[in-house]
Request: fold
Amino acid sequence: MAETGATSQSNPWRWLVVGVPYLWLLIFFTAPFLIIFKISLSDTAIAMPPYTPTFEGFGAIGDFLSQLDVENYFFLTEDPLYINAYLSSLRMALISTGLLLLIGYPMALAMARAPTTIRPTLLMMVILPFWTSFLIRVYAWIGILKPEGLLTLLLQSIGLYGPDQQVQIFRTDYAVFIGIVYSYLPFMVLPLYSALEKMDNTLLEAASDLGCPPWKAFWKITFPLSLPGVIAGSMICFIPITGEFVIPDLLGGAETLMIGKTLWTEFFGNRDWPLASAVAVLLLLALVVPIMIFQNQQQKVG
Reply:
């Protein structure tokens, strides 16, 4: 009976621990989302803020519904600019995530297979770029990739380029891919390293004793066991890359079309807050819904 009483007294603390993450989501996710959703149902106005407020008062249901304006969402489905921006963002995010996985997986595997004495050093080298401002690191790539930049000087010095030739990468999609892969690589390596480090290496030894070649042991043992890290790293990278704005704006050209740049233009260039809010709401739904479906399937499998 005493144990039961002690357990019941500790329940409030357990509810507090569980409630803190939900409170965090409520304040920093749900509340801003509802504000943006409210603005997306408004009309543009020449005022400050530049939209006509909605949901004013609690009148009849007809008056309430008459305030809702979904014209912005219909406009997004009709204008090819926004459709192309969404598709281009998803394409660049998929390609970038694939490149990050191809580069980050061997790095994480090498770190996990390295002697335990040097693993902290390798881990610190992966985290080291975070000690510098994100903007400074992106600006550094401008100095490297621009036609008269360090990359051109390097290729000219080793004879691959002539004195009058220049590398034409800056302001292209290739420069955007380089900037994204460089900036997001630690976010891919760290989850992969966490998954690979926990793997039982005796499984590989047993496979080798049974005559399994190394490449087959990798696909049959190592890669399946590292799938949680692969999925976590891919989601951590794919979601922010889809809405990336800074890297496409600084390294990309006029033809680099991503939804983050379009969103910024609508908010600060055209000052069309309702339309920009509708763009943000659809982008959020496009990213959140697949994640929720995936988590639901994972719970069913578990």
Q: What stands out?
A: Residues 4-8, 58-62 have pLDDT under 50 and may be disordered. The longest strand covers residues 43-44. Strands lie at 43-44, 51-52. Residues 139 and 255 are 20 Å apart (CA to CA).
